[in-house]
Each structure stands twice: as structure tokens, then as C-alpha cells.
Amino acid sequence: MNAPKRDASASTTSWALRVNSMGDARCLPAYRASLAGYLEAHLGELCEEHHETWARNPLRVLDCKREPCRVAREGAPRLSDALCEACRSHFGRVTDGLDALRISYVRDDFLVRGMDYYVRTTFEFVSLVLDAAQNAVGGGGRYDGLAAALGGPETAGVGFGSGIERVLLAAQAEEVDLSAKPLDVFVIDLTDGSAARDLTHELRRHGISADRAFENRSMKAQMRVADRSGARLALIVGAAELAANSVTLRLLSGDKSREQQQVERDQLLPTIMELLE
Predict the structure, then answer these.
(1) What distance in Å separates the CA atoms of residue 53 and residue 118, rounded to the nearest whole number?
(2) What's the CATH class of domain 15-172?
(3) How far apart are CA 40 and CA 54, in angstroms?
(4) At 261, is the secondary structure helix, strand, or coil?
């Protein structure tokens, strides 16, 4: 008898999250030089490829999966010890957010990216139901230097890549339904972003598709994104809502579009579910 399929939003422990910070232009160059000095002293211990290429990009040695490099890197200087105060504080906010959402993660000093446009946060998701040698299903990080490297303006960004075959294999092994769902709710946060983070996570945990804006945009800018998203509802949290432990709920589609009401925080979930029926 086949087991029932689980929705992709359902909780699962069959994956692991690895995170790290690569620092930025203030602290990464000194770390790179320190790492290069270490590798030069241990040149004979590296794999054949990196025995020839380590000087060109020493960070790639940390990410090498071959046994000689994996053994040699254990004594290498750690990125976590080289971060400047600003990068340490930034990474602290990342891990504080993960802790607030009760998302388990492992700090991995060897999780690096070799391209110069990567700064600060890097991450990787691995599936625990796939073979260990081929279990990475997606990873990425901050791309703050990418737009400028391509001739554009300095623009902050984050992105990731994933292996569709591995995602499908992991989903099949766990019998997860990956059917696309239209967006139900868009969260607009006019405070520090924590409310949007927590609300979005809570809604997804209950099977409600939700998204949010980033970078502390204005109300007008966030509403434009909400309208383009196709979401049926918008949740708005400003200073007044935060103080009253409530959320402003606005309809974005239907005959009563733009109608809104203030909902107590503990009544928000049943109210949304009733509206989405």
C-alpha cells in the first residue's frame, strides 16, 4: 500500500541546513592571505588538482570533496575567527532569525563560494534521504558584488542554485507533493522585518502559501509587490499594529478589493482560513 503524499509545506526533518559567513572586502582579503600561507606550508597534502591551483583561489580548497584536501583543511585558519565586527553582527542576525523560527542549522567554516561577488552569508541544503556523496539539493548566498561586476550599480542581492534532479529524487523518496499553489497571502512589514519573518513562517507551517518583501521598503513599494504577486490577501504590520498585537488584513482581489480590517494576532489564522475557503 502506498503512503499518502505530504504537502511540500509540511514539516520534515529529512534535510539539513549548513550556513557560514565569508566576510566582506574589509575582512576577507586578510583571511584569504592567511589561508594561502597555510596551504603553501601544507602543499604536499593537497589533492592533485589543488596542488597546482591552490594559489589562484585558496578558498576553493576548503570546498574540495576529495579526501586529501578534506584532511589537510582541518588545521586551516577558520573564517569565523577572521570576521570583522560588522560581518559578525550581520551573521548573528541571520542565525538569530533561524533560531526564532526554530530552523536547525550547522555552522560550517568550510562552506564557501569561489566567486568574488559573494559576500557574507552562504548556505546549502542537503537531503538526508540521498546518498551522502550527492546529497546537496541547493545552495547559494549573498551576491552583493554581482550587479557591479556586470557593469551595473552597487546592488544588494541573494540567490541560490539547485539541482532539479536531486530535488525530484528527494521529493520522490519522501513522497512530497510539489504541485504549484497560487499565492494566498503577502506580508507587508513596516517595522524591522521580524514580524514579516515570523508571520510568513507561521502561515507556511499551516499550509498557507505566503511571501513578503525585503530591504525595508516603503508601504507603497511593498503594496506594488503585493499586487503583482497575485496574492488574495495582504497582512500589514506597522508600529501601531505591533503595539496592539494585531495585524491589518487587506483584501487584494475580488469584489471587495482594498477592504481591510484589523485582526487580533491570536485570531489571525482562523480569520485567514475562513477568508480563503
Answers:
(1) 20
(2) alpha beta
(3) 8
(4) strand
What number of helices (H) and strands (E) belong to the chain?
A: 11, 12
Give 268's pLDDT tier (boundaries 50, 70, 90): very high
Sign of the four-CA dihedral 178, 183, 184, 190: positive
Angle at 137 between CA 179 and CA 163, to 5 degrees: 75
pLDDT at residue number 24: 92
Domain-wise residue ranges, the chain: 15-172, 185-276
Q: What is the pLDDT of residues 146-198, one digit of tens each?
A: 888 889 998 888 888 888 888 888 888 877 777 777 899 999 999 988 999 99
pLDDT of residue 6 exceeding 70, the answer is: no
Hey, is 96 helix, strand or coil? helix
Rounded Cα distance between 218 and 189, Å, is 9
d(CA 26, CA 147): 19
What are the tens digits of pLDDT across the range 258-267? 788 999 999 9
- Under DSSP, the state recorded for 208 is -
Neighbours of 137 (CB within 10 A): 21
- The arrangement of secondary structure in 185-276, i.e. its CATH architecture, is 3-Layer(aba) Sandwich (3.40)
CB atoms < 10 A from the CB of 221, how many? Answer: 13
Q: What is the pLDDT of residue 3?
A: 35
Residue-wise burial string across 155-165, b where 16 or more C-beta atoms lie within 10 A, e elsewhere: eeeeeeeeeee
| 175/162 Cα distance (integer angstroms) | 19
The three-point CA angle 232-238-241 to 5° equals 90
